[in-house]
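user: can you give me the structure for this one chain? tokens are fine.
assistant: on it. calling the predictor now.
[tool input]
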Amino acid sequence: MTERLGLRTVLGSAALGIASIAFIQCSSDDDASGGTGARAGSQNQAGEGGGGTTSGGTSGGGTAGEVTAGAGGQAGAGEELAHHLYVGCRDESGSIQHYRISSESGAVTLEETAEANATTSNFATNADRTFVYIAHADEGRITSFSRDPETGVLTLEDFVTVPGNASGDADAQEPFNVDCVDAGNPGGPTNPATQTLTLTPSEDFLIASNWCANTVLVYEINADGTVGDLVQTVVDGAKSHHAVFNSTGEFVLVPYFGSDVVAAYGFDDDTGMLSPVDPLTTEVPEVAGSSGPRHLAFHPNETTWMYSINETGGSVSFFHFDETDGTLAHQETISSLPEDSPFTVEDMNRSGSEIEIDQSGRFLYVSNRVDGVANGSIGVFSIAEDDGTLTPVEWEDTGGATPRHFSLSPDGQLLVVTNQGSDNMSVFTVDQGTGELDLVETTEVCEVPFFARMIAPM
């Protein structure tokens, strides 16, 4: 049998006849299955094709009988899911590569490439997957794309400008991120370096976290789905990097990487306004003087459990979240790397980056970029059902340097990681029982891949 994504060729054998060939297109039907083969043919008559069902199977062809009756048609094979995979890159054109990826084999096929016209940073999409929003790390803007939910094709619609610091003057905005001053124009405005985008539960607003400007910005979403006016600007720490809502949508949590804290805000879905919780910030435990909380993840079932991947600390922190007042209470912090790892906080080369919890809530995944030269790793941790504490399962080589971002497929069967320093991505299958990863393949992609996001087919 030969197989490739999008087209499977089934070669049937026949003792005294001609082999039948059936072409099976990839389908978006869930749980597709083939039927049974039809009856055998009589002498000198082909057996009938069988196995076609409304759930996605295709007919297997019968074979002609010469002396004896022809064999019955082969059972139709079930069709497989082909998720949409988007890889965004930090190249000049802002490439967003659209792949189809097999949920069974993990094989990928490039469909087309959209351009955002500025280097990309991250990706957000609405619930019905008809709009995609792109953050840009090297230019102050957010780009809106409409998306065809059937084909997955992206169409650029509009963009808005994201403000940086008013000027290079440290008094213009506190705290001021001196790392982002343009050496060629030290008195000019800085690039905000938008890192992530988060839609509010109602999808009426979009939150942008900006590493250089330190800001958390709230934008309206227009009736046509594009990004609208700026509603609010919040600055309560240095180098904001992410924003997540709790399960009720009443609170927003923001990690301030440069201040080693997570800030909590109440959210008004009518106005889009953020208001500080008391206390506003919770410290993330430092390791050798720094933690650097980068991204956050809530547990899908135990909604009071929240986890943070800490970049400079090379650690994962676990907090209890109070759903009544929005406060956090630290429970534990463990290393995101093995105990014998040669990468240290003192050398600033542990570099935790992304975090995600599987749909079952049993396993937590983090990426470690380490020194940007050696291959990075995905750390897999089991989550205790009774108290939410973490136990290491394994660390898997990502097949490239600087694994900035990864994501699990909608069905949880696959994990895709982009290796920023190697211009490639690696696809893994996920063991549903143990959480362990198994490498399928590593594929070259566009320059400096920053994110990989998967969307289920319709």
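assistant: here you go. Residues 121-283 form a domain with the Methylamine Dehydrogenase; Chain H fold (CATH 2.130.10.10). Residues 1-69, 73-78, 167-175 have pLDDT under 50 and may be disordered.
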